[in-house]
Description:
Blueprint: H1 8-143, H2 147-159, H3 161-164
Amino acid sequence: MELVTPDFGLLFWQLLTFIAVFFVLSKFAWKPIMTGLKEREESIESALSEARKAKEEMSSLKADNEKLLLEARKEKDKMLQEAQHMANTLIQDAKDRTVKETNAMINSAREEIETSKEAALAELKNYLASTSLEIAEKVIRKNLSTDAAQQQLVKDLLTSPSSKN
Length: 165
């Protein structure tokens, strides 16, 4: 039973050993352990605050990315509209130029036809005049082959000039 009931001497030495170990630990080990724990606590807190900052930065970057994507889409739509407008303008210009060129060709062809028509009419008039003169010359030669016919013609011309005018 001696093992169950402690003796005063044993208690004294246990208490003295405990105080000595406590003093040594508090002098040499307690400060480094507390400093280590404090450093660990600070590093955990700084890691948490950095994680919060990173999370905030990620959310702001995400918002910035969404803004950039929206702006890029708007810019793309604007560029597509400008390209469509330019294409329509080019097509309309080509149509207008084609119409102008076609009208110019038609007008040129009309002028050429008119010129050719006038030239053909002039040539026809010249041909008809020369043919008429040849016919008239042949008729007059045949009718005025005698002196009596010539004198009769002169008399007719002298007496009736006022009736022809």
